Amino acid sequence: MRFRLTDDQRALRDGMRQVLARHFDGEALRAAAGDGGAGRAVRPAGPDRVMWRALGDAGFFALRLPEADGGVGLGLPEAVLVFEEAGRALLPGPLVATHLAAGVVPGAATGETVVTAVDGGLVEWLAEADVVRGDTTGAVPLRSLDPLTPLHRVPGGAAAAPDPVAVLLTAAEQLGTAGRVCELAAQHARAREQFGRPVGAFQAVAHLCAGMLVRTETARAAVYAAAVTADPVDIAAARLLADEAAVRGARDCLQVHGGMGFTWESEVHLHMKRAWVRTQRTGGVTESEEVLAVDLLTGTL
């Protein structure tokens, strides 16, 4: 099966990339991460409200809301495209929760309200959000791996079944990271020289870059297909592939960069940290594995 973006979908993707380039470029990313000296991160004060409203104006949060309700009236495939761009840019904030709250929480669709939600035993951006969906009684702060994703743990209580849309949008963000680190690795492999040759000419580096590309494009096909079918099993498979592409891709990108990838000025280590944190959302890998296992068992019995 082949998936080709329509002209409108390509325009939507390119338009969102331009919006993010204006409001959250590489310099803004490093500023948001907040180098507190000696590589220490400073806790972010909250999502940039100007940027959040700009996303609202661009229809990011109201993308799937019907036009009759003031939304854009598009579907899940288009949402996947804009969340992929958000992942590529490492856009901070509870994007999925605010998107899902459009039409339910006043101001969420327009970006005037920042919404977060309890996700299993974790909640992102609890102290910084305007509205929290779910019970946060007894929530305690955690030291997050990602300086741009403050976390709290909520004790007790059975975790609700993950929303398949939230799972897919998280996979789309992971896909964005996978694509971005693949680009960064290829750029560095072409530009960095050792022994008078670009490091990409060496077989070991070339194999790393090729593996990143294969995992990224495999994940892309799965994520785009799941956006079309909206089938929970397809979404679970897409999530697993996107998580692998993001985490392994960021790791391999660090290896291509060598010590430079760990420096605070580089965005490579930030992609790795965000990818790790995203793997804990919506039940994590285990939940998606369980969905696939049940489908395999019921399909063969």
Oligomer category: single chain
What structural category characterises the helix and strand content? alpha+beta
Q: Spell the H/E element sequence.
A: HHHHHEEEEEHEEHHHH
The number of helical elements comes to 10
Helix proportion of residues, in percent?
40-55%
The proportion of strand residues reads: 5-15%
Strand order of the largest sheet: 3-1-2-5-4
Tell me the span between the first and last alpha carbons: 27 Å
Report the radius of gyration as a whole number of Å. 19 Å
Mean pLDDT: 90
Poorly predicted regions? none
Shape: globular
The largest pleated sheet is described as: 5 strands, mixed
Count all strands and give the number. Answer: 7
